[in-house]
Amino acid sequence: MDIALDILSWLLLTTGGIFVFVGGVGALRMPDLYTRMHAASVTDSIAPILIFVGIMLQSGLSLASVKLAAILLFLLLTGPTASNALASAALLSGYKADESDGPAEGSEK
Question: What's the pTM?
Fold first, then answer.
């Protein structure tokens, strides 16, 4: 049973690390603020879940797991809120998204 928990936890940790790496590359490679924020916010939602659950499996049922669950809950509540606040601030300041891939001139929705 210990080997199965170790394998599962390391699989979760590795997958979470891959999500962090892909999100970081996406944040560097995307063309404008809104698409960069999308890459970062998606990474901020799934990567902590995978990483923290992997660490919780490693620590077992202990006070450390309860603390990690509290930190995870805090991250899951504040991450999307911060992304939304940043996007709203950019929109209110007049920052426009790159419209090169948008609808053609004169076309109606």
Answer: 0.79
